[in-house]
């Protein structure tokens, strides 16, 4: 069940939105000011945040800025303000959509559904990586090179993901050890050479280049 945080100081509007979204199948947490909303945000992970702009204690602009410093969860702003500059300010701070009061609750629901669908698709896309004819699915651990499914060890897979996510960047041996092994001081860096050799052989690729004195780079 997707979780939604609603921040709205008007108790009547808050109650109606909560009932409407709960009936639609969402798990809703409510707050009546920005500080209370931020408190909930720090304790839980939400799939969507709906907030009013004009709230006591902390307004929606400040709340959006704080949320955006640590999260990419979609934000839908509700506002009675009609100036274009107010909407632009919200977008500049990281809001994903606006709905102006008074609004239809059916329209609100549709906007919620669209934002969640886009957000979910982004999460799916993050799990599917590609570099040329090499594709990787980080959820199923499937690797395909030139149409052929390739069997990799866990360490080989983790190294490949690190390289693809940082295409065209030089990745040092120390970075590989710290992110793949998590105990760089114990592992001999020469073991990375062996893994790189195996990756090139299994993937039938020369995209993984050794940068002398620096590390490795995955060409696009």
TrEMBL record:
<dbReference type="InterPro" id="IPR001789">
    <property type="entry name" value="Sig_transdc_resp-reg_receiver"/>
</dbReference>
<feature type="modified residue" description="4-aspartylphosphate">
    <location>
        <position position="52"/>
    </location>
</feature>
<keyword id="KW-0804">Transcription</keyword>
<dbReference type="GO" id="GO:0006355">
    <property type="term" value="P:regulation of DNA-templated transcription"/>
</dbReference>
<dbReference type="Pfam" id="PF00486">
    <property type="entry name" value="Trans_reg_C"/>
</dbReference>
<keyword id="KW-0238">DNA-binding</keyword>
<protein>
    <submittedName>
        <fullName>Response regulator transcription factor</fullName>
    </submittedName>
</protein>
<feature type="domain" description="Response regulatory">
    <location>
        <begin position="3"/>
        <end position="116"/>
    </location>
</feature>
<feature type="domain" description="OmpR/PhoB-type">
    <location>
        <begin position="126"/>
        <end position="220"/>
    </location>
</feature>
<keyword id="KW-0902">Two-component regulatory system</keyword>
<dbReference type="InterPro" id="IPR001867">
    <property type="entry name" value="OmpR/PhoB-type_DNA-bd"/>
</dbReference>
<dbReference type="InterPro" id="IPR011006">
    <property type="entry name" value="CheY-like_superfamily"/>
</dbReference>
<dbReference type="GO" id="GO:0000976">
    <property type="term" value="F:transcription cis-regulatory region binding"/>
</dbReference>
<dbReference type="InterPro" id="IPR039420">
    <property type="entry name" value="WalR-like"/>
</dbReference>
<feature type="DNA-binding region" description="OmpR/PhoB-type">
    <location>
        <begin position="126"/>
        <end position="220"/>
    </location>
</feature>
<keyword id="KW-0597">Phosphoprotein</keyword>
<dbReference type="InterPro" id="IPR036388">
    <property type="entry name" value="WH-like_DNA-bd_sf"/>
</dbReference>
<keyword id="KW-0805">Transcription regulation</keyword>
<dbReference type="GO" id="GO:0005829">
    <property type="term" value="C:cytosol"/>
</dbReference>
<dbReference type="GO" id="GO:0000156">
    <property type="term" value="F:phosphorelay response regulator activity"/>
</dbReference>
<dbReference type="GO" id="GO:0032993">
    <property type="term" value="C:protein-DNA complex"/>
</dbReference>
<dbReference type="Pfam" id="PF00072">
    <property type="entry name" value="Response_reg"/>
</dbReference>
């Amino acid at each position: 069940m997707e979780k939604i945080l609603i921040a709205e100081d008007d108790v009547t509007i808050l109650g109606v939105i909560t009932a409407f979204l709960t009936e639609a199948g969402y798990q809703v947490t409510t707050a009546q000011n920005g500080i209370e909303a931020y408190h909930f945000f720090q304790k839980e992970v939400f799939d969507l945040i709906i907030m009013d702009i004009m709230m006591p204690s902390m307004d929606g602009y400040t709340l959006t800025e704080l949320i955006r410093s640590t999260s990419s969860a979609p934000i839908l702003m509700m506002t009675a303000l009609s100036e274009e500059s107010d909407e632009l300010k919200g977008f500049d701070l990281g809001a994903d959509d606006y709905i102006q009061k008074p609004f239809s609750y059916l329209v609100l629901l549709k906007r919620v559904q669209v934002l969640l669908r886009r957000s979910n698709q982004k999460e799916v896309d993050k799990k599917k990586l590609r570099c040329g004819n090499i594709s990787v699915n980080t959820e199923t651990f499937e690797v395909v090179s030139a149409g052929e499914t390739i069997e990799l060890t866990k360490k080989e897979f983790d190294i490949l993901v690190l390289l693809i996510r940082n295409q065209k960047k030089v990745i040092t041996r120390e970075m590989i050890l710290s992110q793949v092994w998590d105990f760089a001081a114990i592992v001999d860096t020469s073991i990375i050479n062996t893994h790189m050799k195996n990756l090139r052989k299994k993937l039938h690729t020369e995209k993984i280049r050794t940068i002398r004195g620096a590390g490795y780079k995955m060409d696009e």
